[in-house]
Amino acid sequence: MTAENNDIDKHIDDEIFECLNPLNLKSFFLFAGAGSGKTGTLVNVLQKFKEKYGNDFRLRNKKIAVITYTNAAADEINHRSDFDSIFAVSTIHSFCWELIKNFTTDIKNWLRVDLNDSIVELDEKLSKARDPNNKTAVSNQRKKESKTKRLDSLNTIAKFVYNPNGDNVTRASLNHSEVIAIASYFIASKDLFKQILINKFPIVLIDESQDTKKDLIEALFSLQVKNKTKFSLGLFGDTMQRIYSDGKEKLGKDLPEDWLKPTKSMNHRSELRIIKLNNEIRKEIDGQTQLARIENTGGLVRFFIVSRDADKLKNEQSIKEKMSLLTDDIKWTDKNVVKNKSDISVKTLTLEHHMAATRMGFENFFNPLYNVDKLKTSILEGSSSSVNFFTNIILPLSVAQTSNNKFEVANIVKEYSPLFDRKNIISESDQLKVMQQSKTNIDKLLNLWENNKIPSLIEILEEVHNTKIFNIPPELKLALERSSLSNNGSDEDDDKLLLAWDSALKASFAEIVKYQDYISENSPFGTHQGVKGLEFERVMVIIDDVEARGNTFSYDKLFGIKALTKNDNDNVSAGKETGIEKTSRLFYVACSRAKKSLAIVAYTNEPETLKSKISNLGWFADEEIEIEQPV
To answer: I want to staple 80 with a disulfide (CB 3.0 to 4.6 A). Which of 43, 284, 468, 470 is the partner?
Structure first.
């Protein structure tokens, strides 16, 4: 399991580089498991391309598009490739926006169809409403009015706008799902659009391709098949690390014969014991194995079994103390204040984000929103305009106020307040009037924090609404209006998103601070799926199907504690993906984050049975499995 040398994958960089020869383009899928250094390969290939073909590309005004999963990944690749202009490195949302932003008429046509379809659907719901004055009917009516207003205003929009960081609340704004849907549709159906894309980006490289939106991937596949000599599509990924349902299943399977399909065998991240566990987890899925670097011969893994009725926080702390003794590593018990990622001693990974939210204390705000499927991605990416109203405007404002930084308070107001719109400032007297009004209004808002008070989110919204100091996103406007209505027999099909906001807005503003720390990864907590691409010296993986409250993943089924359902067996017979496969992938992602030591903490109602099942799996030695006595 240890490599003969640390350069066994070096040839792959050369093979991929050959695919990018502008005179002989070829497409490829690079299989790169956890810790295999795919970002290093990507950067090396870009560097070699720049040296050999960069000047020619620059003269011909062509670029390589590099699509990454996160802004942080884009920043790292940009930095490591010296910000060269022949590389357009961005997230999927930014890439799609760059493609479509000048196609204003086509965007309008797409929106007309989409909005009309939505209005017809809302009309059907309104016609079936039992009570036109309950929250459900009022919400549907307001949404219909909003969509109708947007439809009517399309002709007046000269150009659409989009902010990939989430603040898309103006009349001419597109939201995130629209941007990707429009780009996918244009690539698949518009010949002129296809030609423009190929001319500008004859090479498109996609990192974490297994989780890239299925519609976009399929549109790019279709484009490549019809333009093999003019367009290279390069995919970097690992199907074992596909954790989102909107990615393309079995991405690396059934690729065209002329595609290059290299595989990286080295894991540069983890010690040998952890790599062996990773290989065992994926053995039944695809049989792919990795080797350790010559020097990475150690590593420690322990599987702790805890009764579900135990005090979880106390037991988890006790396990950290045991890990500290086992590894002779005092950092397992560090209680340092986390200001950034480098301060994290132990990364604790929960199965679901709401488990981390409960441990950190922002569950009242987070959990209602996270339970809405169409909100999950945006609330985790920090790309929801409604959430960003609190994190990007109100939070910095309160921080500036707390530190008595009046200059920063003024800057935030000038940047975000509609009072400073040019149409309101024509003369010097207008400017003075606006400044006086803004000071009065912002003082009223900041009074909510007076004498160490911590307002609720709904109180903040009410004050902003009263003073008009900031624009409130449409979703929150509707939630604010709903707060004054009685439940009055809400329909069962009331909008789940608005019901979620009804609940979330009751939370204290202190929860926004903790939520922001969490999604910025400046906390010792994360989730099994949310840490993909990251690595930590010490990792604790928390497993508890009951606390997770989900039915997508089941560790009890994976470990054999719970029997497969008829639906599970039917999916197996039909060759369809099962919940066990999804859970295996999730477990792989979580365990493969660890560099040196890994503690797995599994909560169960049947400790002895689980110990027996885990032992039979063969993934752990008997001395690595321990039933933890409740603290």
So the answer is: 43
